[in-house]
């Protein structure tokens, strides 16, 4: 995209002018409030957003780099880490009782940190050029970690059910492997890998096992409680050594908050950077950033406190019901099919027969009515992240989807681009 340049004004604008310009800038953005954006946004309603905005504003100027100056940020971070750990099995003796971790800026950073920890842990054991073995469904952030930290990322094709192929993963592990990855859930098809088998594999080979629960971490525990999920996926599974869970997804926090957890303090210490090797004195930090915004931390804390266990359980139940409604409607359409067996509210669907229907042409029709769905390939599919804000829009979406499939007929589109991440 080409953006026109806005010069630095010679004289500063008034507060009203600045805010007017910001509102004008937003005019071309996706309007998500109606629930038509199935991705990027997690919406627990207007009152909740008002609270998040107020919490962010309270901590607008503070800096998470120094919790001696701002103990409030240390306290909130501690609470967020402990609550997340508890949701993911840390209170159960099977976890080993030593789960600990850190707040990060998002899912990508949590995965980067877990990968760097695995690399350093492997190097300590004499592996100079470690690898990480993950399925092709594991998030792109692992490939980013490979580039940033000089780790060879070995991508293993998923099975027909889009889950990690445990035998193929086992075959890809060798004496350079630092870590194996399981997704609970995976982003592309929303399926849960066999964490029990992958944890056992890691234990058997003496390597680490990360469970990427960035998407599932604040959903699966509640879905389990509601009786809709019975697969073990967290620190209760033997062999699991680290996990990631994003507050800014199904924790309904503002953007900029995720948690990465380790099964032992010994592993976690690899994430702590410390130096005195410069003129500025002792410098310690646990995240990629130095200066760290406190607003997202306060908003995440506010989100969990305001929703509580009851609120998260209710939002999970409502969101899951809406997702199931869409999944059932897709499966009932003879031209469409869901890819794999999605475990929660994130899934992809496409044409049962790609010669009979071009699903990207369907997405173009849906886009004209304001729906935002990601497109992905292998195979061509549309991707939905259903969240609490999608619930109210579900009946309209189902009607528009049926109509779009009907009107597209056998028309195809030239545009085969995919759109998940296009950050500047
Ligand atoms: C399974 C999974 N892992 C990691 C991420 C990365 O999270 P973020 O976009 O917050 O960096 C995502 C994002 O959707 C995800 O679904």
Describe this structure in words.
The protein has 424 residues and is an alpha/beta fold. The chain has a domain at 58-303: Type I PLP-dependent aspartate aminotransferase-like (Major domain) (Aspartate Aminotransferase, domain 2), CATH 3.40.640.10. Helices cover 38% and strands 15% of the residues. It contains twelve helices and 14 strands. It has helices spanning 15-25, 46-58, 71-87, 107-124, 141-149, 166-172, 195-205, 220-225, 265-268, 295-332, 359-368, 394-408, and strands at 37-38, 100-104, 131-135, 152-156, 177-183, 208-212, 242-246, 258-262, 273-275, 283-285, 336-338, 346-351, 372-376, 381-385. The chain has a seven-stranded mixed sheet with strand order 2-8-7-6-5-3-4, sandwiched between helices. The protein has a five-stranded mixed sheet with strand order 1-13-14-12-11, covered by helices on one side. Strands 9-10 form a two-stranded antiparallel ribbon. β3 (131-135), α5 and β4 (152-156) form a beta-alpha-beta unit. α2 (46-58) runs antiparallel to α10, α3 runs parallel beside α10 and α4 (107-124) crosses α5. The longest helix has 38 residues, at 295-332. It is globular and about 65 Å long. The protein starts with 14 loop residues before the first helix and ends in a 16-residue tail after the last helix. The mean pLDDT is 97. It binds pyridoxal-5'-phosphate. Pyridoxal-5'-phosphate is lined by residues 106-108, 111, 139, 141, 183, 187, 212, 214-215, 246.
């Amino acid at each position: 995209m080409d953006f026109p340049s806005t010069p630095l004004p010679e004289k500063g604008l008034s507060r009203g002018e600045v805010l007017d310009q910001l509102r004008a800038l937003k005019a071309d953005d996706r309007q998500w409030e109606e629930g038509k954006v199935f991705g990027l946004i997690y919406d627990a309603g207007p009152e909740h957003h008002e609270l998040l905005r107020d919490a962010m504003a309270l901590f607008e100027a503070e800096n998470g780099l120094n919790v001696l100056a701002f103990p409030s940020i240390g306290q909130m971070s501690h609470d967020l880490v402990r609550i997340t750990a508890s949701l993911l099995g840390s209170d159960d003796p099977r976890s080993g009782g030593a789960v600990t971790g850190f707040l990060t800026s998002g899912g990508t950073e949590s995965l980067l940190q877990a990968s760097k920890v695995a690399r350093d842990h492997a190097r300590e054991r004499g592996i100079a050029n470690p690898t990480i073995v993950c399925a092709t469904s594991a998030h792109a952030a692992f490939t980013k970690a490979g580039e940033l930290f000089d780790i060879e990322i070995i991508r293993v094709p998923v099975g027909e059910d889009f889950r990690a192929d445990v035998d193929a993963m086992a075959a890809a592990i060798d004496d350079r492997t630092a870590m194996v990855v399981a997704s609970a859930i995976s982003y592309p098809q929303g399926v849960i890998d066999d964490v029990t088998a992958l944890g056992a594999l890691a234990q058997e080979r003496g390597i680490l096992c990360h469970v990427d629960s960035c998407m599932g971490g604040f959903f699966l525990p509640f879905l389990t409680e509601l009786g809709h999920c019975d697969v073990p996926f967290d620190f209760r599974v033997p062999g699991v050594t680290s996990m990631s869970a994003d507050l800014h997804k199904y924790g309904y926090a503002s953007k900029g908050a995720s948690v990465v957890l380790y099964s032992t303090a010994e592993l976690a210490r690899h994430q702590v950077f410390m130096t005195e090797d410069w003129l500025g004195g002792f410098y310690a930090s646990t995240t990629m950033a130095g200066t760290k915004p406190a607003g997202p931390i306060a908003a995440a804390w506010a989100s969990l406190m305001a929703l509580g266990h009851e609120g998260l359980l209710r939002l999970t139940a409502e969101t899951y019901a809406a997702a199931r409604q869409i999944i059932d409607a897709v499966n009932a359409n003879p031209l469409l099919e869901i890819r794999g067996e999605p475990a929660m509210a994130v899934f992809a669907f496409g044409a049962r027969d790609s010669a009979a229907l071009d699903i990207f042409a369907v997405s173009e029709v849906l886009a004209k009515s304001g729906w935002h769905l990601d497109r992905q390939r292998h195979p061509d599919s549309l991707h939905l992240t259903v969240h609490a804000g999608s619930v109210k829009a579900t009946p309209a979406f189902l009607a528009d989807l049926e109509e779009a499939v009907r009107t597209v007929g056998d028309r195809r589109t030239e545009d085969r681009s995919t759109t998940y991440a296009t950050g500047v």
